[in-house]
Amino acid sequence: MSKVILITGTSSGFGRTIAEKLHSEGYTVIGTSRNAEKIYSNYLTIKLDINDYEASKSEVNQIIKKYGKIDVLINNAGINITGPTETIKMDDVKRVFDTNFFSQLNLIQTVLPQMRSKKIGLIINITSIAGYLGLPFWSAYCASKASFRVIAESLNIELKKYNINVVNIAPGDYKTEILNNRRDSDNPSSSPYFQEYENIIKSVNGKMNHGRDPIEVANLVLKIIKEKKPKINYLVGGFLEKKITLKSLLPDKLFQKIIMKLYS
Ligand SMILES: NC(=O)c1ccc[n+]([C@@H]2O[C@H](COP(=O)([O-])OP(=O)(O)OC[C@H]3O[C@@H](n4cnc5c(N)ncnc54)[C@H](OP(=O)(O)O)[C@@H]3O)[C@@H](O)[C@H]2O)c1
Question: Quick check: is 141 catalytic?
């Protein structure tokens, strides 16, 4: 039987492109969306809000019952809420962490017993280049992605004897629906951050509108699935984006100056 692959958030963007690519390659793909009206795929898509931990557990167990296994979990679903770190609502920060961190960890905890019993498995987390640096007004998103990136490192050591690999894919700017689905905090003209926040939003929106084709990420996912010994961290995007790890070679404040030049 072909590999059974569960991908979260397949109604648009990376998730949809990855699902279509893997389905066309003959894999058994199960996608998810929170909205029944967004379910229009030619592979199985289930209605699931990953923030509902019990529903996530139940769906994963039903898939395992139906197909006998989940070979690959792709934690792709994600959200972004921006805002000045001083004033962003704590509920919004928690919402970002719930989707980008806790709900994904819940899915990992749910698939692992089955993967361990079979002594094989692959988990791919779609993190972000934003998880390697603190962008202004993107702090909740950057922090959620940075935190989740580290989970893979812990897990790879814990799971070594079970032949389970946990991989991060950190993309740069890609043209998906993330721009339309992102929520920005209120920015009243009385805010001390009014102008800077406005400028960054404009600059990032401009960059995202010229983002790269998500098929690059889907192709990388396919390559990793075929790999015997995948790496832990993959960066994908433009030349400069992929060089983000070199930031440790520069003084922190010089690095921030360079980044802010790119966003001005
Ligand atoms: N685009 C980029 O440049 C970029 C760069 C780096 C990282 N990323 C990451 O890539 C991943 C995919 O984003 P994208 O760019 O493809 O954006 P997108 O087009 O907005 O897709 C996001 C997907 O996540 C799903 N989703 C959101 N909250 C969910 C929840 N609570 N439960 C279930 N599904 C949920 C959405 O599905 P429904 O609304 O149908 O439920 C949608 O299918 C995210 O983790 C994002 O942070 C994107």
Answer: yes
